[in-house]
Structures are given as C-alpha cells and as structure tokens.
Amino acid sequence: MDPDETLALFDHEMREGARPEGPGTRVERAGAVVRRTGGPEDWNGVVWTAPDLSPDRARAEIVAQVEHYTALGIGAFEWKLYAHDVPEALGDLLLAAGFEPEPPEALMVAAVADLSVSVELPEGVRLRAVTDEAGVELMVRAHEAAFGTDGSRLRHQTLAALEGAPGTFAAVVATVGDEPVSSARMEMCPGTSFAGLWGGGTAAPWRGRGIYRALIAHRARLAAGLGYRFLQVDATDLSAPILRRLGFTTLSTTTPYVYRTAP
C-alpha cells in the first residue's frame, strides 16, 4: 500500500465523492466544499474542501455553511478538518468563526488482504450480528458502557440504516451471557475501495483480552467477502497503537471542529 496514493484515493472516493449515510440524509457539492445534511439526530457537516481553497474563499465558505445549517434548525454541525487540507490556517479560521475543536484522531488505513481474519475470542465471549431492534439495544448498551456517552443518536442512526440502507452497514456485539461488553460497526460504500470501521469499544473490565482485535478481524473478514480493498479508521490515542500492531498505517490526522447553532 502506497500511503500517498491511498490518501489521494481516500480523499477522492470518501470525501469529495461522499455518499449519504442513510435515507434521510443528502450529500451535495456547495461551492468549494462537500457537505452532508440530515435531520437533528443525523451526522451533519463538511467532509471535503477544495484543494485550492484560499483563505478569503475559506472565510466565505465558513459563513455559508453556518447559515445553511442554522437555517435548517440543526443544533450543531461538524467541519471535519484533515491535517493535509488547505489553507494551512483553516483551523484558525474555524476557531475565529466560533467552532470548537474536539480531540484529533489518526486517519488509519490497512489493505484488507494484509489483515488477519481469524476471530479469536476469550472464553465465554461470543459475537452476535446486529440485525434487529433487540440487537441495536444490545449495541447501544455496549457503546454506553465503553464510552460513557448517551447512545440515543447511535440508536436512531442504526435503526435507520437497518431499515433504509441495506448493504451499507454491518454491526456486531460481543456478549458474555446476556451482557453486552463490546460492539463495533462497519459502514460500506458500494462502488468504492473503502469500508469504514466505527464505534469499536469495550467496557473497562473486559479490555486487554483481545476483544477489540477480534472485532477488527471479524469486520476484515466481512470486508474481504464484499470485495473492499481497504479498511479505514478514525483512531483515538487508545486504539491507534492496537491498530498499528495489526497492520494499519497512519495517513493523516483529522480534527472535528464543531459549531453549535443553538445554546
């Protein structure tokens, strides 16, 4: 895998050529940006900026996107800024416009053919595919236990994906008996080279036992069967070392800049 070529392919297919995440969302090229717009419970924001964006044009685009989402009553939206985006001062311009940065994450990619697809679980742990409302509830419980955050938005987005976007989404829950201890998702973009890994998290008492690694292998097996060339992750500092050991390469970093249109 050539990192520069893979990053250029990622920018072209997954950012400039972004697809709607579900039946209630739309993606559009607006001036020098590509943005995704949905309802209040959907992910809303800018996913791509033109590679020749000047500081003056960037200021105008920032104002335009704030006006766009505010007019729709979207309470908050995100400008997904990558380290290789231009202009170099784009982060400063977003800060000056009232955006708030969240912790940066590493854009990590691996060739599916180079990954292990052998799923090795600790004794007593089993995997359950999320295919119905009961599975979604287990996934939400696992997510809340792992991250300590409310899973309402995740519940909404997952139910919408299961109902209206077949073939673009897969999720799995690791359980011990009836108790969910870990979960993970994979978002597929038919016609592209990439499948995205999201939400991988394990409840604290079960960390360090190989569950996260098993969930990566499980999704790599799914991606291989569907013909995807690469797996992509926005990795936190917690997961990046594990992913690096498994064969993922850091191509860039991404920082979510969040604008809240309402207090």
UniProtKB/TrEMBL annotation:
Query: Coiled-coil annotation: which residues?
Result: none
The UniProt GO MF terms for this protein read:
acyltransferase activity
PROSITE patterns of this UniProt entry?
Answer: GNAT (PS51186)
Fetch the Gene3D superfamilies from UniProt.
3.40.630.30
Q: What is its EC number?
A: 2.3.-.-
Arranged from A to Z, the UniProt key words for this protein are: Acyltransferase, Transferase
Acyltransferase among the record's keywords? yes
The cross-references to InterPro entries, in alphabetical order and at most eight, read: Acyl_CoA_acyltransferase (IPR016181), GNAT_dom (IPR000182)
In this protein, which residues make up the domain named N-acetyltransferase?
A: 125-263
Presence of keyword NADP: no
Q: What is this protein called?
A: GNAT family N-acetyltransferase
